[in-house]
Records
---
Amino acid sequence: GQNIDQPTEMTATEGAIVQINCTYQTSGFNGLFWYQQHAGEAPTFLSYNVLDGLEEKGRFSSFLSRSKGYSYLLLKELQMKDSASYLCAGMDSNYQLIWGAGTKLIIKP
Amino acid sequence: GAVVSQHPSWVICKSGTSVKIECRSLDFQATTMFWYRQFPKQSLMLMATSNEGSKATYEQGVEKDKFLINHASLTLSTLTVTSAHPEDSSFYICSARWDRAQETQYFGPGTRLLVL
């Protein structure tokens, strides 16, 4: 079956670094996505990885290992506005997104 | 980036009424649109996939006669919740995709439905 696993909740301190892990199992693979979702809002796109390695985009980076079925989202210099849910989604061979349940990130001052 | 709009953003209705939600791609032609539902503190649940000019493909457990989807043009898809009940209260989100960029979905802002 298809499955995406990520932690339910994480807590970090403002200014620190946090890594949110995601493991995936999909039927075929067309990439791994990370979305940010603030409460009451639709998801917004953060990153897309289809090849192994690290993609850096400002304070956010995303890593993919296809052989391990593993990805992580790295957030640096955390700001209070980064408090949100982070959704990991794998795209299967039909270009369908398989969604994780999301990781709620709580930032403390 | 591409823009997808949804209308209305908020709707409150009485039980038994039908509610129509529109999803529009504003600056690109969306060959495929997706409808999701999200209950509080849960992740997105795909309800159906619609391709322009053809019938929608519904996910298992989603009643196609209750959630009517029409994708009549490359820029508009509608979701009609028929005979809505309180348990249909949820956050409905659409996303749109262009067939030449199948890895990219652009999300609308969502529609919050409250059925009294």
---
Amino acid sequence: QSVLTQPPSVSAAPGQKVTISCSGSSSNIGNNYVSWYQQLPGTAPKLLIYDNNERPSGIPDRFSGSTSGTSATLGITGLQTGDEADYYCGTWDSSLSAGVFGGGTKLTVL
Amino acid sequence: QVQLVQSGSELRKPGASVKVSCKASGYTFTNYAINWVRQAPGQGLEWMGWINTNTGNPTYAQGFAGRFVFSLDTSISTTYLQINGLKAEDTAVYYCATSKQPLGARNWFDPWGQGALVTVSS
């Protein structure tokens, strides 16, 4: 059971927009910064978003992050078949003094 | 470029030990922490803990103290994960990833190593 809760799967058509939610609590998302990772099949996770809404160099602006209270959201616009992957949210949990991840969301681009 | 390169896949019998390495390049090794993350087959990411590359002090997440040991050799910019008394449920891909140190409110993991598959089977 993950500390952060994500939907197991989401899907949308190419060119459309999708959002992936990540729900936590005041000890994690509510008071710490959120990051998002993309894991393409058979590869290592890759940082997509850090500090809630910042994109590392090389990450297209189709990817965006936001937070509100104890929840975070990853948005992806202009979906491409190459975006099919597992997406994970992550943050620090102050009560556990530990890094925590969501259970992951599998994105299918229909 | 900043890069983490891990050692290859390992097959061990239950009760044995394994040591996975993670070699950093492209940055000053002691400026950033190394974290370890486990991913069991078909499962999500699980943070195992981190090692302070300045002091060598390891911190283990709940459930990873005891059989799991983080160490480092700063002379070759390499961090190690040793797992003792292997069990079948330790079968997983183990990733290393850098982050700021110490870990805290503003924390993210980038880059990641390519992962090392450890298979425990008799």
